[in-house]
Amino acid sequence: MTATEPAASDAIAADTSPRPAPGATPPRTPLVARVAAELFGTAALVATVVGSGIQATQLTDDVALQLLANSTATVFGLGVLIVLLGPVSGAHFNPAVTLAEWWTARRGGGGVTGRELAVYVPSQVVGAVAGAVLADAMFGEPLVKWSTHDRSAGNLLLGEVVATAGLILLIFGLARTDRLRFAPVAVASYIGAAYWFTSSTSFANPAVTIGRAFTDTFAGIAPASVPAFIGMQLVGAVVGLALVAVIFMRGRTTGE
Q1: 3-state DSSP call for residue 145?
Q2: Cα–Cα distance between 67 and 154 in angstroms, integer?
Q3: Euclidean distance between CA atoms 188 and 66, whole angstroms
Q4: Where are the alpha helices (DSSP H) in the chain?
Q5: How many angstroms separate the Cα of 31 from the Cα of each of 89, 131, 246?
Q6: Is there a contact between 227 and 142 (Cβ–Cβ < 8 Å)?
Q7: 108 or 95, greater pLDDT
Q8: Which first-to-last residue range defines the signal peptide (predicted)?
Q9: Is the confidence at residue 11, as pLDDT, over 50?
Q10: CB 219 within 8 A of CB 128
């Protein structure tokens, strides 16, 4: 730094530009860049989930090891994607998260607008399908083959409610306490744990659920099971927001 350059503290003090609320999408990023980040990020996430599942089944017949490999790859991949794309779009990669942010914005909190919601969700779904097709292509599988993995049992649907509620509670709890800087590690860790403690292996994401219907591999889900899974994920999102409202209730200022 030369003598003519302002000190870093002076530059910070002079910067009076508005700051985004915790959880809000960065305001200076063009919408097309945010949409591209959501599409690419969701595609990369699904490619990681599906591809690691295929790789695992080719390397071992032990289902526990297959799930371990699948969950480990997902944890690392998701953490990297959040670090890389979080500053661009908020790294949702998940319509349930986007819908929850839109709802909190309507209630006066930070979040996406209706216009952003209308383009984020389709980009996430398209990205999820593209990621599944890409993973199949990399491993020489049919590019599109509907999954035959039935996941319609009631206990699995309950697992999706729990997984999605926990995810929403985590993300918006971090936002309420101004600790979103921990999101890459916290969210990836939660998903890795939820692979094991939920009966459904924690899809917790409507777009990912749709994408995984396009591959008849380890991570697939039968198309007939998709609507119920998505319905339970949306229920879980509502439960998660309710838990945030109760657990992270904002204090009231009194004159006492």
Answers
A1: coil
A2: 21
A3: 18
A4: 8-14, 31-59, 63-89, 95-106, 114-138, 154-176, 183-197, 206-212, 226-247
A5: 9, 22, 33
A6: no
A7: 95
A8: none
A9: no
A10: no
- The dihedral over CA atoms of 165, 166, 168, 173, expressed in degrees to the nearest 10, equals 130
Nearest Cα neighbor of 175 from 22, 13, 5, 2 is 22
State the amino acid at position 98 in one-letter form: T
Cβ atoms of residues 55 and 69 within 8 Å: yes
φ and ψ of 21, to 5 deg: -70, 155
Ramachandran bin of 235, using left for φ above 0, alpha for ψ from -120 to 50, beta for the remaining angles: alpha
For the chain, the average pLDDT equals: 89
Q: Residue 121 carries which side chain, given as an amino acid letter?
A: V
Q: What is the pTM of this model?
A: 0.86
* Per-residue tokens: 129: 């399908």
**Confidence (pLDDT) at 183:** 96
Residue from 51, 208, 7, 33 nearest 126 by CA:
208
